[in-house]
Specification:
The chain has 19 helices and 15 strands. By secondary structure, the protein is of the alpha/beta class.
């Protein structure tokens, strides 16, 4: 229904029901038309909660109902369109509301619509009402809010005087998502449109990071970390950015990395008279010296694999992008270096962090507040560019399964697009299918099985095990 029709439809049950059925008729297969009920209760009293909506077919035709529903609340100057839990409880739809994928898609839609779509923090919470800060921006539906506020879990306000096309897109997305979550199939052009929209939603669950974005942030903040699941191209992108800036060097962190390696240290050396100690500059001092000449990027790969508090020591206080004048006195001074260390404004530090590596501790807050972070996620577009059907099918399954069933913490384990690309690249197209097949068998499947064996995917273990089995079967066929 379009904005501006609310006041004229109040009390017109048949016309409203026809509009809803018309909208469904153009969207879904005829065989699925019996899988829902349309309820309309439009009254003229200001203290009566008028509504029209789509509910599960197993509910009665009147009275309280169970499960999720798509509901339209008419009001003064507009209306509110919402996803609602029936006042009789969740029913069989507990699985929908409790599935991480449903919430992720809603939040992605909220981002796509610049926050206009409100989504409840916990979809299963039916005790908390929609905040006043949200409802005050909606058309007046006071009677409906008084009765149903606690069971609304996603909603958008639509005013009569706004752009119809903008309003229609938000409402259309919410309706299509409701049908999708209930496995009610779209048909024809509606199916094509929804599949395209679903890909856009997925792209907002897994946003992409452009080289230009990283470069701009690095030049502005000076200290940046690219973090994300394995195989998402963090190191590759970091080196691309560094090469574009010009002067750079790369170091690899690991658990044995020390302050002496990175800042400054004493190292024994043999002399005629026996043993002496030589003061050697670490990676940071050498990079900082290079930065006195021009912009210089120090790429620190796997930055969280070392104990950063120990590796940085007192130098941690220098990592303040807004205070380039800070200095610390070095415990030992190498030849040719000043006794105090001050980081040059030309020194840029770009780290990478693998969020799937659970063998090491998280970055502490002192480190985290000194760096800007960019998340890197898997990209289906990168795999599609290589145009290998087996890789595309397998990767789509990976994205779908992890999105649908894993928690936010477990989602950071999702294998990235690099696992699904030909290891030899585009220069050797012959034999690509076989190389990709072996990669799925020898890298992706073992990784997924390791997640399950090490209990890293919790309640999604069965789904991830099934995913591993499906990919293994794909690679064998």
């Amino acid at each position: 229904m379009r904005a501006g029709r609310e006041s004229s439809l109040i009390g017109k049950r048949d016309e409203t029901q026809s509009l809803i059925l018309e909208s469904l008729e153009e969207r879904i297969h005829r065989k699925d038309h019996g899988r829902y009920l349309v309820r309309v209760n439009l009254q003229t009293g200001a203290d009566v909660a008028s509504f029209a909506g789509i509910i599960d077919e197993d509910n009665p035709t009147s009275g309280p109902y169970q499960g999720t529903s798509f509901v339209w609340f008419p009001g003064e100057g507009g209306s509110v369109v919402a996803l609602v839990v029936g006042t009789a409880g969740f029913g069989a739809d507990t699985a929908i509301l409790g599935r991480p994928g449903h919430e992720r898609r809603l939040r992605a839609l909220a981002r796509m619509h610049n926050g206009r779509l409100w989504v409840k923090p916990d979809l299963l919470d039916i005790s908390t009402k929609v905040p006043d800060t949200i409802t005050q921006r909606w058309p007046n539906i006071d009677a409906a809010l008084k009765e149903y506020s606690s069971v609304i879990y996603a909603a958008v306000g639509v005013r009569q005087d706004e752009d119809d096309d903008v309003a229609a897109q938000v409402v259309s997305d919410l309706l299509d998502l409701y049908l999708f979550e209930r496995n009610i199939r779209h048909k024809g052009a509606a199916s094509t449109r929804w599949q395209q929209r679903l890909e856009e939603i997925t792209s907002h669950i897994f946003p992409s990071v452009a080289l230009e974005d990283v470069r701009a942030l690095l030049c502005e903040r000076r200290f940046v970390i690219l973090e994300g699941p394995p195989g998402t191209g963090k190191t590759r992108l970091a080196l691309q950015v560094a090469r574009e800036i010009g002067s750079y060097e790369m170091v690899q962190f690991h658990p044995a990395r020390t302050y002496e390696d990175f800042v400054v240290g004493l190292y024994p050396s043999a002399t005629r008279d026996g043993l002496a100690f030589e003061v050697r500059p670490g990676d940071l001092l050498r990079a900082n010296q290079q930065a006195q000449i021009n912009k210089h990027v120090l790429v620190v790969d796997e930055i969280n694999r070392a104990d950063l508090g120990r590796v940085l020591g007192e130098a941690i206080s220098l990592f303040e992008p807004g205070e380039p004048g800070r200095t610390v006195r070095l415990p030992h001074v190498p030849d040719g270096f000043p006794p105090e260390l001050q980081l040059s404004p030309n020194l840029l530090v770009l780290g990478t962090r693998n969020t799937a590596d659970r063998s090491i501790a998280h970055l502490d807050l002192a480190i985290r507040r000194r760096f800007a972070f960019l998340e890197m996620w898997p990209s289906l577009a990168v795999v599609r560019e290589e145009d290998e059907p087996l890789a595309i099918t397998a990767f789509e399954d990976v994205i779908r399964t992890f999105t649908e069933f894993t928690t936010d913490e477990e989602l950071r384990l999702i294998p990235g697009h690099s696992y699904f690309l030909d290891p030899l690249g585009g220069s050797h197209p012959e034999g690509r299918s076989e190389r990709v097949r072996r990669r799925l068998q020898l890298e992706v499947v073992p990784l997924l099985r390791a997640y399950v064996a090490e209990h890293l995917v919790g309640g999604a273990s069965l789904e991830i095990k099934g995913l591993a089995d499906r990919i293994e079967n794909m690679a064998r066929d």
